[in-house]
Amino acid sequence: MPKLFTTAYLPPVSYLAAIAEEMEGLSDRTDGGSSSELSPSVIYIEACENYQKQSYRNRCRFYAADGVQDLNIPIVHEGGTHKQPVSEVRIDWSKPWLHQHRRAIISAYRTSAYFEYYMDDFFAIYEQKPEKLIDLNTSLLRFLTEKTGIAVDLRFTEEYSRDGHNCTDLREAIHPKRPNDILARLQLEKPYFQVFAPKHGFRSDLSAIDLLFNEGPDSIGYIKRI
Fold it and tell me: How far apart are CA 92 and CA 119, in angstroms?
């Protein structure tokens, strides 16, 4: 069954694990294709809801030298954002947030094993400076799914539905103020290497960039049992 998510800025590992759950190997092919090929997960991004503050829609969590920190994208407040469709929410590029995010991410991950390998493609997405929050989030999500090896068929809702469009509805399940059981349910609660773990201990379910920059191509083995 397809899954339904909110848009999210550099979403947590549980978000990607939930996407990857439906991804299956094509082991029953009869046309000579490799059994290692994967059929994509079909997911929908909620594009018709009203914007909600203090959520992963414009926030991510990463591991810095002083512990877990948040990064927030400022948005243009017009006409009350709580009544504004999330697809219309604009990024406030008049504020120096991009410089702050870039500096914070480099400081946190410059010594990680794979940061230099991915950094140019990663920061190039920001340099496009899309007007809409959902466009930046989607470009970054495509980057994360591609680099972690998740095959995904990404779609957008065309109208709002309380019942979740006949999808597994995860719109309220993944939220910075509420823990979720996704990693536990998928039996993926396990540590991976983190730069500052020797100082602060392992921190679970941070932004997927934490997993990617530390584990690189091995990220898929963390978020999907294949």
Answer: 23
